[in-house]
Write a structure and sequence with these properties.
mainly beta; Immunoglobulin-like; 5-stranded antiparallel β-sheet; 24 strands; 39% strand
């Protein structure tokens, strides 16, 4: 059995290069007036700060890599740009445009007579239905606009202010600016996107041991885990297998066929990014073999999980597993459960071992 100690070394080596980059700048409006207390963060990470009353910010980036820098403030359009943290300090000044409040937001909110039913459906789709989902709570649900389409087939939602989601199971608070959510009630097809970042809400008590276990359980077999393994040509070592598919004309569905190598999926590979694509859908098989993460390892039984990836186009993926939101691929099966309740920040590195009720560094 592969130990987590090896995983710790492996991922620390490839994904947690510690060369601090300091990004400083000033956030202003279109008239060059400072915007006090704007939020400046690296999307989908724990790295973020508030600008001061003069709009000045200083953001420490602890890991090298490519990130999406987001600057946002209520009443303004968010700003987004890709930055490379390579250890060299940077100055990035940002100008935000005022956001036009749409009348439709107020109108829709007033007509939402099925609010409770729609909200519960939204939570099940957005947060998920895993064990961790029971420990997630949206702290400001009134900032969510939710309604059905005119033909009643789609559930649509977005937030007028970032949603504050507390996940006590994984020890994170997620600040999520939900820009798009669409659930087709007939087909079950779901898409949502937005900018978000994490705040670590753990403390130093013994309960953190359970949180660290849960984080590792969420990580292994996830999309992030698979994409990172693919990047460093370590798919099989990380207990993944990739299969081609073929169309079953009788049932009009894709079925698993021959095993393929990761090189048949990874089209181009650079120092900090890769491009992946396959003309057919692919099946990702993951064999879970981490009994040390569970309370009763002696009765643990390994499990196998299958996921389906359908490529609409090639996908650009960065070294830490991050890829821009978009519709270049669709997820099915096990990995489609990676919703809010299972989210981990892209600066997460599985660097601890659980043994005899304690955590220690390898």
């Amino acid at each position: 059995m592969k130990s987590i100690g090896w995983v710790a070394f492996f991922f620390l080596l490839h994904f947690a290069v510690h060369a601090q980059t300091i990004i400083t700048g000033r956030v202003t409006d279109s008239q060059n007036h400072p915007i006090p207390y704007a939020t400046v963060y690296l999307s989908k990470t724990t790295m973020g700060v508030l600008a001061n009353q003069n709009g000045v910010y200083s953001l420490n980036v602890s890991q090298t890599g490519t990130y999406e820098l987001i600057v946002s403030c209520v009443g303004y359009e968010s700003h987004s740009q890709i930055i490379n943290a390579n250890g060299a300090d940077k100055r990035i000044d940002i100008s935000l445009s005022e956001r036009t409040v749409l009348i439709k937001e107020v109108t829709i909110k007033g007509k939402d007579v099925n609010r409770e039913f729609n909200y519960n459906k939204f939570v099940g789709c957005f947060i998920g239905r895993t064990e961790n989902a029971a420990f997630c709570k949206i702290k400001n649900p009134k900032d969510l606009i939710i309604y059905r389409s005119s033909n009643d087939s789609n559930l649509i939602a977005y937030s007028i202010k970032p949603l504050e989601i507390e996940n006590s199971s994984l020890g994170y608070k997620i600040i999520y600016d939900l820009q798009y959510f669409n659930y087709n009630r007939k087909t079950g097809h779901l898409r949502f996107s937005g900018d978000y970042y994490f705040q670590d809400i753990t403390n130093k008590d013994r309960a953190n041991l359970k949180i660290q276990r849960r984080r590792l359980i969420s990580y292994y077999g996830s999309r992030m885990h698979f994409l990172r393994a693919l990047f460093v040509d370590s798919v099989s070592q990380e207990n993944f297998k990739i299969y081609n598919t073929q169309m079953d004309s009788t049932h009009n569905s894709w079925v698993k066929s021959d095993i393929i190598s990761d090189k048949e999926v990874c089209m181009t590979l650079k120092a900090d990014s890769m491009t992946i694509y396959h003309p057919n859908p692919i099946v990702i098989n993951y064999s879970d073999n981490h009994p040390e993460l569970f309370p009763l390892p002696q009765v643990y039984r390994p499990g196998e999980y299958n996921s389906l990836i359908v490529f609409n186009d090639s996908l650009h993926v960065y070294r830490n597993g991050y890829y821009p939101d978009g519709y270049d691929l669709s997820w099915g099966g096990f990995m489609s459960r990676d919703r809010i309740a299972e989210l981990l920040p892209y600066d997460f590195v599985p660097k601890s071992v659980v043994k005899s009720g304690t955590l220690f560094q390898k």
